[in-house]
Amino acid sequence: MIKDILQQFNISGTHSGVSTGAHWLPGTGPVLSSSSPVDGQHIADVQSAGRAEFDAVAAAAGQAFKEWRQWPAPKRGEVVRQIGEALRRHKTALGKLVSYEMGKSLQEGYGEVQEMIDICDFAVGLSRQLYGLTMHSERPGHRMYEQWHPLGITGIISAFNFPVAVWSWNAMLAWVCGDVCIWKPSEKTPVTALVCQYIVQQVFAANHVPEGVCCLLAGGREAGEWIAQDTRIPLVSATGSSRMGKAVGSAVGARLGRSLLELGGNNAIIISAEADLDMALIGCVFGAVGTAGQRCTSTRRLIIAENVFEAFTQKLVNAYQQLRIGNPLDERNHVGPLIDKDAVQMYLQALDQVKAQGGRFLVEGGVLDGPGFESGCYVRPCIAEVQNHYDIVQHETFAPILYVIRYKTLEEAIALQNDVPQGLSSAIMTLNLREAEAFLSAAGSDCGIANVNIGTSGAEIGGAFGGEKDTGGGRESGSDAWKNYMRRQTNTINYSTSLPLAQGIEFGL
What we know:
- By secondary structure, this protein is of the alpha/beta class.
- The protein has 15 helices and 23 strands.
- The protein folds into 2 domains: 1-33 and 43-263 and 472-490, Aldehyde Dehydrogenase, Chain A, domain 1; 267-452, Aldehyde Dehydrogenase, Chain A, domain 2.
- The N and C termini lie far apart (81 Å).
- It comes from Chitinophaga japonensis.
């Protein structure tokens, strides 16, 4: 099945991972070998970029920007509309490949491609709504307004857990804004990036889009450093760990560039004594085990009212006993594998730390073996009762480990929710309006996303996505996130016959 998909997009042998949007360049960097965590089988080899190829790609992007920025925004939007149509045609094939290369469930693979389609639709409408403002001038015969212009090259560094969707959040908005893009996908999921590049190249060729508007740069950490340090790239959007984001932000900031950072999450759901516990259960379990706990919005912590703690944790234990773990392309299974064996080792280290720091497991974890688990990447989702201040709880572990914590008052619960370095997503389960509003108030959740009676994962593209503190402060996708990809210009026009100065300053000659 996967071989048929790869043949459909002319991917065979060792394929170049470097493209200027019209031509594939022979890479001189290390070969990236992609294997599936589903069954351990080899998918394809991708030749990564060397420094010379990066410079060639950056030069092509810079040249393309000079032309692309002058295309009318609605015309750029029409090209993005066609990308959305192409993604609709390839949704099944690309969704299966996402599931197989990354390891998420097939439904989540399809959902990721749907996110790409949705952001295309959003961007098409946006292409006719890049609004500025008008202001009244204090000087007679003057008019003031502000407008937004394309920024230039957008460097996109994406992570393995959403191998294509997060790239599209950035690229589609950047393109309608008049920017060009250089994409460095995760070295763990390079093949899905090749397929996306093929799809976009076909649409761009049909519309005579200049070469260099959509560039691909497969590579490892070094390729990301080239992007972060290059003054030709005014905006770098990076998704990944807080450690990686701090390095990118430091490098970009040192040259006074802009960075858009979407980093780690340590997301909590508060379970009130006045919650609908059955409904809360669904959101908590999906949030904790969906994508095998490898979403930045995965639910890591449940902060549960003391008087419903035993009842709700028993519901959780019963639900976990019903989870089906296995091949994610089998839609009967709930949980697939971790991305690789390094992730498995981090999961096991986290379990050891939970025990060492005094945690108590309600559902034990462990690595699964035997038929169907030959890749060595399948682990058992687990639940541990802990204290919020434990060092391991304060850190994000990209795995299906759910921590449960007791609270007595809502004020205490909100304080616990906020008392971690990260600030991405949060939720409260309650039927009490006062509790819900307190959670959403300025004194409530300090996260970029705060939900009531839904879980922490599953954001829609209409709202700006991102978080605070060690999550980086970036905003992608909907709302006014498009402003990240443009530069603001304030204009004052004098249509009078004199030249008065602002603030009433007199400067006679």
